[in-house]
């Protein structure tokens, strides 16, 4: 195969894709590979069978960091399908260093993995194109709407709109939002859902009521502190993650206020310990394990050269009402 790759001036991975998944490469590239095979007197079907025997039955899941609780639930779903189908799952942590993705791409080129699931959103188009040209790839749990590879995502706009509308239904009119990093599409989409809920309920959007930071407890604490310093603090806060919400609640308590009596809180994700937090956290529950399972199923189809019925799989999040929103209290006048 290396002879064919050298003759055609492409990578061995491209030769593999041209033979096993021709729909994933440009027609011009496929013809170059076929011409090289003919010139070198190889038989395409024999070479394809040899490539199939080189399958590792191993896939790589790449995460931006290993600290986010969302990833463990996604991995649980991925691993369940992988075990059922006889695949091993390796975990790659880029620690927020995007260039490290290319190091993992070398594992594919060396035939150490068969495909990749990226738990990373907002990769640049040229990185996505580089990856898509080389190997079967799926992105979850978030991506831009026009991603060029298969995605398994949650409806962040609609889910965040429902979370905000729930607080509005409890009588709140001065609602704040603590967002995640605003360069991420998930953060921008959740902010948009918050804005839409305000607009549709006749509430003016106030930039001062929007704060942004990381998806962490520390960021929630810090941004809530800024909201509490306002002359008129909010009566409710929709947080872009459960960890942000937990940090916000911690700061509210330190300020001598109560949740939800003084300030109501809604989070996003439904991480496993959100139900035992004090107070128990009202949140939008992403079906993370199911999204993980679907991601693995899509990747297996891609590795087997199957044509997907669609390229983007979108899930809804469910509102889980617990104590932090104050639904059990009387509605505000």
UniProtKB/TrEMBL annotation:
What species does this protein belong to?
A: Pullulanibacillus camelliae
Q: Which domain of life does the UniProt lineage start with?
A: Bacteria
Q: What is this protein called?
A: DNA-binding transcriptional regulator CytR
Q: Which UniProt keywords apply?
A: DNA-binding, Transcription, Transcription regulation
One of the Pfam families matching this protein, by short name: Peripla_BP_3
Q: Which InterPro entries match?
A: HTH_LacI, LacI/GalR-like_sensor, Lambda_DNA-bd_dom_sf, Peripla_BP_I
One term of GO molecular function: DNA-binding transcription factor activity
Task: Work out whether the entry's keyword set contains Transcription.
Answer: yes
**Residue runs in coiled coils:** none
Q: Where is the HTH lacI-type domain?
A: 1-53
Alphabetical list of PROSITE patterns matching this protein = HTH_LACI_1, HTH_LACI_2
């Amino acid at each position: 195969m290396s002879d064919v790759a050298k003759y055609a001036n492409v990578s061995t991975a491209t030769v593999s894709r041209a033979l096993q998944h021709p729909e994933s490469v440009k027609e011009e590239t496929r013809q170059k590979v076929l011409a090289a095979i003919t010139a070198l007197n190889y038989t395409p079907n024999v070479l394809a069978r040899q490539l199939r025997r080189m399958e590792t039955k191993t896939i790589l899941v790449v995460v931006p960091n290993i600290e986010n609780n969302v990833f463990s639930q996604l991995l649980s779903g991925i691993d369940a399908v992988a075990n059922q189908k006889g695949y091993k799952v390796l975990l790659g942590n880029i620690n927020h260093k995007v260039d490290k993705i290319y190091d993992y791409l070398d594992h594919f080129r060396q035939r150490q993995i068969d495909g990749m699931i990226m738990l990373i959103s907002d990769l640049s188009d040229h990185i996505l194109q580089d990856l898509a040209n080389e190997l079967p790839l799926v992105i979850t749990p978030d991506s831009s709407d026009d991603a060029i590879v298969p995605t398994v995502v949650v409806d962040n706009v609609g889910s965040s709109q429902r979370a905000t509308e729930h607080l509005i239904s409890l009588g709140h009119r001065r609602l704040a939002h603590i967002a995640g990093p605003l360069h991420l599409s998930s953060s921008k989409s959740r902010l948009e859902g918050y804005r839409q809920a305000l607009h549709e309920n006749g509430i003016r959007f106030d930039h001062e009521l929007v704060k942004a930071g990381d998806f962490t407890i520390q960021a929630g604490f810090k941004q809530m502190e800024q909201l509490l310093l306002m002359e008129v603090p909010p009566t409710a806060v929709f947080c872009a993650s459960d960890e942000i919400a937990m940090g916000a609640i911690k700061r509210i308590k330190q300020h001598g206020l109560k949740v939800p009596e003084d300030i109501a809180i809604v989070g996003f994700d439904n991480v496993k310990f959100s139900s035992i937090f004090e107070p128990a956290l009202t949140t939008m529950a992403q079906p993370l394990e199911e999204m993980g399972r679907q991601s693995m199923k899509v990747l297996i189809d891609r590795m087997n050269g199957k044509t997907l019925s669609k390229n983007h799989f979108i899930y809804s999040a469910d509102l889980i009402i617990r104590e932090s929103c104050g639904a059990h209290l009387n509605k505000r006048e």
